[in-house]
Amino acid sequence: MAAHIRIGISGWRYAPWRNVFYPKGLVQKRELEFASRALPTIELNGSFYALQRPSSYLHWYEQTPPGFIFSIKATRYITHVLRLRDVEQPMANFFASGLLLLKEKLGPILWQFPPSFRFDATLFEHFLKLLPHDTHAAAKLAEHRDASMYGREYIKAEEKRPLRHAVEIRNQSFETPEFIALLRKYKVALVIADTAGKWPDKKDITADFTYLRLHGAEALYASGYTDKALDDWALRIEAWSKGTQPKDARLISDQAPLPRKSRDVYCYFDNDIKVKAPFDARKLLRRLDMESGLAELDWSHAEESGKLNPTKVRTNKS
Question: What is this structure's pTM?
Answer without folding.
Answer: 0.94
